Amino acid sequence: VELSCIIKSTVTQDPRIEWKKIRNGETSYVYFDNKMQGDFATRAEILSRTSLVIKNTTRMDTATYRCEVAAPSDTKTIDEINIQLTVQ
């Protein structure tokens, strides 16, 4: 599955991008400090700097995924989007 976090425009040279998984009220990192975290390290990757691709998805991947972008040089320094993923 591919989850996209599209950055339309930014003046910040290298905005910080993080992906988090929110399930049952608990938040965990998926992509942090430019690398995959936890069990995502072996089955997920970042495409085009912003899209999260999760391979071999299971029902345990059902959650809200949050993409957070920090761009300190922009007028809006931080933004986020939540994507609800349901695996049948």
UniProtKB/TrEMBL annotation:
PROSITE patterns: IG_LIKE. One of its GO terms (cellular component) is protein complex involved in cell adhesion. It comes from Piaya cayana. It comes from the Eukaryota. Coiled coil: none annotated. The gene is Jam3_1. GO terms for molecular function: cell-cell adhesion mediator activity; integrin binding; protein heterodimerization activity; protein homodimerization activity. PANTHER family: JUNCTIONAL ADHESION MOLECULE C (PTHR44598:SF2). InterPro entries: Ig-like_dom, Ig-like_dom_sf, Ig-like_fold, Ig_V-set, JAM-C. One of its GO terms (biological process) is cell migration. It holds the Pfam family V-set. SUPFAM superfamilies: Immunoglobulin. This is JAM3 protein. Residues 1-79 form the Ig-like domain.
